Amino acid sequence: MSSSEKQKVVVNTAPPYVALRPNDKLATVMTVATSDSSGGAGIEADLKTFTAHKCYGLTCLAALTAQTPKNIYSIHEVPREHFKLALTANMRDMRVDAIKTGMLTKNSVEVLIEALSEIEPTKRPALVVDPVLVASSGATLVSDDSVVQQIKLLAPLASLLTPNIHEASKLLGCSEEMLKLNTVDDMISRAKDLQKETGCPNILLKGGHVSWEGTELKGIVTDVLYTASNECIVYQSDRCDSKNTHGTGCTLASAIASNLAHGETLEHAVYGGIQYVHNAIQVGCEVTRSHIEENGPINHVYAIKMPLLEMVKDLCYSAHALAINSERELAAKDARGRSGSSSSQNSSSTSSLVSQIRDSGHFFEYLISDPRVKPHWESYVNHEFVRKVANGTLEREKFRFFLEQDYAYLDNYAQIHCLAASKAPAVEDFDKSVEIVTKIKTEMEKHREKMMSHFKIEDMKHFDTIRMGPALRNYARFFDDVAKNGSWVHLCAALSPCLMGYGHALRKVEKDITVDKDDIYYAWCQDYLAPWYVEGMEEGLILLDRICQMTDDWDTLCEIYAAVCKLETEFWDAALHYQESN
Amino acid sequence: MSSSEKQKVVVNTAPPYVALRPNDKLATVMTVATSDSSGGAGIEADLKTFTAHKCYGLTCLAALTAQTPKNIYSIHEVPREHFKLALTANMRDMRVDAIKTGMLTKNSVEVLIEALSEIEPTKRPALVVDPVLVASSGATLVSDDSVVQQIKLLAPLASLLTPNIHEASKLLGCSEEMLKLNTVDDMISRAKDLQKETGCPNILLKGGHVSWEGTELKGIVTDVLYTASNECIVYQSDRCDSKNTHGTGCTLASAIASNLAHGETLEHAVYGGIQYVHNAIQVGCEVTRSHIEENGPINHVYAIKMPLLEMVKDLCYSAHALAINSERELAAKDARGRSGSSSSQNSSSTSSLVSQIRDSGHFFEYLISDPRVKPHWESYVNHEFVRKVANGTLEREKFRFFLEQDYAYLDNYAQIHCLAASKAPAVEDFDKSVEIVTKIKTEMEKHREKMMSHFKIEDMKHFDTIRMGPALRNYARFFDDVAKNGSWVHLCAALSPCLMGYGHALRKVEKDITVDKDDIYYAWCQDYLAPWYVEGMEEGLILLDRICQMTDDWDTLCEIYAAVCKLETEFWDAALHYQESN
C-alpha cells in the first residue's frame, strides 16, 4: 500500500482551560432507581442531569421498564442479590457524595435502608428521595400503599423528600381535596405536616400540579421548602406553556442531589434545581415520532455546546482538510477572526436570499416586516413613554429613573461593544467597535453632567450606586448571552434595535414635540433627531445589509431582532410604570 | 402561620440564548449495551457521552453488571422478551438517529439484527458497533468465540466497526503477533482485511494498545479509518500519561455515534470522537476510594460548566438573599461587573495570604518563585533567541518570522484586552483596558512601518495574510479560553507574563547588546529597556498585587502563570527553529 493514498490528521488539541487541574475530584452522585428505556425519566434522566451538572454519575438499578411516552410495555425487576452487590460495591469502592432515589421496589428499599443504616449518620452521603408512586406511571410492580410504607421507612435517613401534591396526599393518608390548598400558607402547613409524618428533616412540597384557579397564584408554580430548622422558602416561577413535562420529578431531585454533591447549601441546591427544570421544560425537545401525542421529555442538554462544533472553531483545530459543510466553515472563520478575512466572507454574497433583499430595499425593512418582529417593533417605536416626553406630560421622577437606567445601560452597552470588537471579522470592524466604545464613554460623561445639573446631584459616586432594575437586567443578560454564545453576526443584530428604534420612535412624534425648548425633555428628543444620530442610523442600515450576506440563517436574526425590540419596549414600560416607592 | 417567617424567592430566569428555538429536534442516539453500575463504562458512559454531545440518549439494556474498577461482582442478563419490547418500543415511538452497541448477549444480538433487518437499508439509523469482547472485562456471560460470531452477523448492518488490536485479532481469527503491526501501513492493511472479513463498510482500527516500541511512532496513538470508498485517514495524537482509561472504548464509539446523529461526516465524527476521548483521558477524574488501585474512569464532563454557578453569575439571578459562600459571591460580583464595585472587592483584602505577601514583596515575586512557575519563567527570560538578537547572530529570516508572528500576536492581544475590558470590575479597569487596546493598535502601526521599510514590503495586504504558526495558535487559544471561561482576575494573570517577561529578558542581556546601533535588532532590544516600558511593568506589578487580593485561589493563578510562561518560551522556540522551507 502506498502512503500517497492516505491522509494524516493530527488530533492533539489540549483540553480546555476549564479543566486546568487534572484528576479533579468530580462530585459524585448515585441514582438508585429504575431504567426508562425511552430516556425521558428514570436513571436515564438522572444520568443526563448529573452530567449536565458536571457530576460523575453512578447507578444502582432496582428495575427496568420498556417504555415510551405512549405506554409502559414491560417491567423487569432486578434480582435482590444483584441489586445488593451493585449497591455495596459502589459504596465500598467508589466515592459517593450524594444519592438520589426514584422508583424503587420492596427489595431495593430494604437493601438500601440496610446499607445506609450501617454508616454512621454523620458520614452518610446526602440523600434526596423522590417519592415516586408507581401506580401513577402505570406500572404494577408494587402497590401505592406498599410504596408509601417503604418511603416512610427511608425518609428518616434522607436529607430531603420531594413529594408533589399527589404524593403528599398519599404520604399524609388523605385525598388531595383534604389537603385544602388555597394559599401559600396552606402549602407551608402541609410541608410541616409531612416533616412530622415522615421524619424527614427537610421537605420540598412541589406545587406544579396545583392550578390555583381563581387566586392570584394562577399561572405561577409555587414550591415550598420547609427545613429542619423550621425555616421556610417559597420558590415561585412562571408556569411554562409546554406539554413536554415527562421526567420533571426525576430531574428535579437529581439536580438538587448534584448541587448538594457540589457542596451547595440546601436552599441553593433547590433554587438551582428548580431553575434547571424550569429551563429544561421551557426549551423542550422533539424526540418522539409524529404519531405520539403524549407528553414528550424535557430538554436536559439545553445549555450544552456540541464539542465537535467547538473544536472546529478552535484555533488549534487541525483537521481543516476533512470535508466540513459550509455553515461550519463560516462559523469557524467567524471564530478564527481576522485570519478568515472579510473578503472571503463576502464571497458567499450571491445567495438568492441576498438578491431578494437587493430587490426589496434594506435588510432592516425585511427584519421589521417579519411577522415575529413586527408587533414588537411597533410597540417599541410607538411607545407612550416617548409621546409623554414629547408633550411634557411624563412625571419627572419617571424620567429620572429612565435616565439613570439608561446610564447603566450605556455602561453595559460599552462592555458589549468590547465583546463585539473581540469577535470582529475584519480590522475595520474591530476599529469601528473600539471607536463606538470611546463614543459611548463620552456620551456617558455628557449624561452625567446633564443629570448632575438638572437633578442637583452633587456626588459623582451617585452614578456608581445606580441599581439595575429588572427590565435592564433582562436586557443586559440577553446582550451578554448573545455576546458570549453567538457569532459576531448575531451580536450585530442584537445591537441594532437600540440604535434604529430611538431614531424611528422620535421621528414618529417629531411634529408633536410641544414641550418647552428649555426643558430637558426637549433636548432629549432632539438628540435622536440630530444629523449625527441620523448618520449613525445610516451606518446601521449598511451594517445590517452586510451581516445578512454572512449567514443563510435569517430566522435566527429575526428572532434576535424580535427579542431585543421586546426588551426595548419593556425598558420603556418599566420607566412609564415606575413609582418612587419601588 | 404568619407570612413573616417565610422567604420568597422568584426563580424565573429565561433559558439561555443558546436555546433560542424551543422544541429543537435534538439529535438522538440509542445505546444497546450493558450497564456498568460504577458509571465508568457501559450504558452509563454512553449516556454521559451523548449528553456531553448535546444529544438525547435512549437505552436498551442487554445485561447489568455490578462492578467497580476493582472487579465485576455480578452480572445479570435481561430477559430476551423485555429487551425486545424495549428495542421495538424505542424504534416505533421514538426518533432514533443513531445506534451504538457495546457489550451484548446472544439474545440481544439476535433481536437487534431482526429489528434492523426489518428496516429498509436506506432508512436504517447510523450504527456504530464497538465489538467488545466480554472475556477481557472478566465477565463470563458468553465466550469470546460466540461474541465474535455475533459481531460478524451484526457487522454488515453497521456503519462503522471500532475494534482495538485485541478485538481485531479475534475478528481476523489470529493472534495479536500475527497481525504484524510494524508500520502505519500494516495497520491500514489490517483495517482493509477487517472490512473484507466482517462486511462492515467502514473500519476504525484503534491503535491505543500498540506500543510501537523502537519505532518513530512511540509515544503517539495511531488510529486508522478505512472507509467504504477505500479511502484511509490516519489519526495521530500524543499518548496520554494517565492510568484513567476505563471506558475509553465505549466513550469513543458513543462520541462518534453522537456526531453522526448530528449529521457530521464519518471522517469528522471520528476526529471529534478521538479528540473528546483524548481530552477526557488527559483531564481524568478521581472518583474511586483510596484503596482502589485499578484504572479509574475518564472524565466525561471536562467541558461542562456547573449550571448553578452559571446562574449565580447571571444578571437575572434573583436569590441573592439565600446564603452562598464567599467564593461564589466574589465570582458573581466579578461577573456582574461594575455593580459590585472595586471597593467592595478590596474589602476582602485582609486574608492572611495577603499579609504574607505584603511581608515578602510583590505578588509577582511569589508567582515566579512558585515551583510550578519557576522553571518555565527561567526558560522564558533566559531564552537564546534574545541573546542571539542582542549579539546580532540570529538569522534574519528567523527574526522576520518572529516579527510577523508577533504582529499577529498583537492583533490577538488587542482582542483579548477587549474581552478584559468587558469583564473589568471597576470603571478605571475598563478605561485602562480600552487605553491599552488603543496603544496596541498604535504599536501595530509602528510594527508595520518598521517591517515595510526593513524588509521592503510594499503591499499593506501582506499583513492580512500572515498565517499564525502552531506556537502562536496554542498561545492565542489559551488566551481565548481564559478570556471566555475565566474571571477577570484569571485573565489579568494570563496577560501578565508577556509584559513582565520581555522586560526581564532584555534586562538580562542588557550588558551584552553588541549588535550595531543602526540594526533593527538594536532598536528591538532598546524598546523593552525604554523608560515607558519599565513604567508599564511597574503598573503590571501593582495590578498583580491587586488581583491577588481578589481571590484565595492562588494555585490557579500560579498554574496560569506557568502555562503562559511555557507558551512564551515556545513562541521564541518556534522563531529560533524556524526554517524558510517550513
UniProtKB/TrEMBL annotation, chains A, B:
<protein>
    <submittedName>
        <fullName>LAME_0G06128g1_1</fullName>
    </submittedName>
</protein>
<dbReference type="InterPro" id="IPR027574">
    <property type="entry name" value="Thiaminase_II"/>
</dbReference>
<dbReference type="InterPro" id="IPR013749">
    <property type="entry name" value="PM/HMP-P_kinase-1"/>
</dbReference>
<feature type="domain" description="Pyridoxamine kinase/Phosphomethylpyrimidine kinase">
    <location>
        <begin position="36"/>
        <end position="291"/>
    </location>
</feature>
<dbReference type="Pfam" id="PF08543">
    <property type="entry name" value="Phos_pyr_kin"/>
</dbReference>
<dbReference type="Pfam" id="PF03070">
    <property type="entry name" value="TENA_THI-4"/>
</dbReference>
<dbReference type="GO" id="GO:0005829">
    <property type="term" value="C:cytosol"/>
</dbReference>
<dbReference type="GO" id="GO:0050334">
    <property type="term" value="F:thiaminase activity"/>
</dbReference>
<dbReference type="InterPro" id="IPR004399">
    <property type="entry name" value="HMP/HMP-P_kinase_dom"/>
</dbReference>
<dbReference type="GO" id="GO:0009228">
    <property type="term" value="P:thiamine biosynthetic process"/>
</dbReference>
<dbReference type="InterPro" id="IPR029056">
    <property type="entry name" value="Ribokinase-like"/>
</dbReference>
<dbReference type="GO" id="GO:0008902">
    <property type="term" value="F:hydroxymethylpyrimidine kinase activity"/>
</dbReference>
<dbReference type="InterPro" id="IPR016084">
    <property type="entry name" value="Haem_Oase-like_multi-hlx"/>
</dbReference>
<dbReference type="InterPro" id="IPR004305">
    <property type="entry name" value="Thiaminase-2/PQQC"/>
</dbReference>
<dbReference type="GO" id="GO:0008972">
    <property type="term" value="F:phosphomethylpyrimidine kinase activity"/>
</dbReference>
<feature type="domain" description="Thiaminase-2/PQQC">
    <location>
        <begin position="371"/>
        <end position="577"/>
    </location>
</feature>
